[in-house]
Design a protein that fits this description.
The chain is mostly beta strands. Helices cover 3% and strands 44% of the residues. A hairpin with a 3-residue loop joins β19 and β20. The two termini are 53 Å apart.
Length: 296
């Protein structure tokens, strides 16, 4: 068969041809921002799809319309979690609409369908909810969004599935990630400057902690005004906050003008300790860092 464009024969595209062309160029998602009101609500025994929502799925535009849409669900039986989805149904003329995937007890919410055609469905998760004791439980948003330039905007708990090279921006963490196909690698992250929370026995002359592009940086000069530091005794300096902690523990050397050396350890749990090799007099500065490490 000769090579040709799908438009060559008729000058038009079928829905299947359009999807094959448009889907690789158009990210799926709702249009807007993760801080927008949820597109899904619960009321009585109904799942409510709110009016005014818009999105794109496999290159096809979708609107929830000018009035709310409701789905009545059963609240009886064992506790379960259901998934609310936006569904592209290739069996019904590529119709786009919302639907409910009913979960199984103890199995968590079902996964959205990702059929590749020609006679199946493809789904975008919108929300999930719990059902227990004849009533709705918690409602959790699952959808991500498309920003003004088509970028994927999400929160840490609403990431899209992996695809090699896919980039996302988490608006709650301020981080930008790229998918390897199996894991998310940080490519942009700037926390701004903060400080390390110190234990009560130490004060600081310099205390700067920040995180940038997957690495944490700490510059710290401490002293203990209330007494000497004994030789070969371990002291807790402070605890690194969550979000700045290292993937694995590592050791460092701290300096004091005494002159004295102290070995130190940064734990994966965030704890920082030092152990002087000889006595350090009260009020002497102890210089730690600058230290750099990949953030877990």
């Amino acid at each position: 068969m000769a090579q040709e464009s799908p438009l060559s024969a008729t000058g038009a595209l079928t829905e299947a041809q359009y999807e094959r062309l448009a889907a690789p160029q158009c990210a799926d998602g709702l249009i807007g921002h993760p801080n927008d009101p949820s597109p899904v609500a619960l009321s009585g025994s109904q799942v409510v799809i709110k009016a005014g929502s818009n999105g794109i799925l496999r290159g096809f535009p979708w609107s929830s319309g000018p009035v709310d849409t409701t789905h009545t669900v059963s609240l009886s039986g064992a506790a379960r979690s259901d998934l609310v989805v936006l569904r592209l149904d290739r069996n019904t003329g590529y119709a786009l609409g919302t639907a409910i995937r009913t979960g199984s007890p103890g199995a968590g919410a079902p996964a959205p369908a990702t059929g590749t055609g020609p006679a199946d469905v493809y789904e975008l998760p919108l929300a999930e909810y719990d059902v227990a004791n004849g009533a709705f439980g918690a409602l959790r948003r699952r959808c991500w969004y498309l920003g003004d330039d088509g970028q994927i905007l999400c929160k840490a708990d609403t990431r899209p599935p992996h695809a090699p090279g896919r980039r996302i921006r988490e608006v709650d963490t301020g981080r930008t990630y790229e998918s390897t196909g199996a894991t998310w690698a940080v490519i942009l992250d700037d926390s701004g400057s903060t400080t390390l929370p110190l234990s009560g026995m130490f004060t600081s002359a310099r205390n700067t902690l920040y995180r940038r592009n997957g690495f944490a940086h700490l510059g710290l000069t401490i002293n203990r005004p209330g007494g000497d530091l004994a030789a070969r005794t371990t002291y807790t300096v402070g605890t690194i906050p969550a979000g700045y902690r290292p993937e694995v523990a590592f050791d460092f050397i701290a300096l004091s003008p005494a002159p004295a050396l102290a070995t130190g350890t940064v734990q994966a749990s965030g704890g920082i300790t030092i152990r002087p090799s000889e006595r350090i007099e009260a009020g002497s500065n102890i210089v730690i860092g600058p230290l750099f490490w990949p953030v877990a």
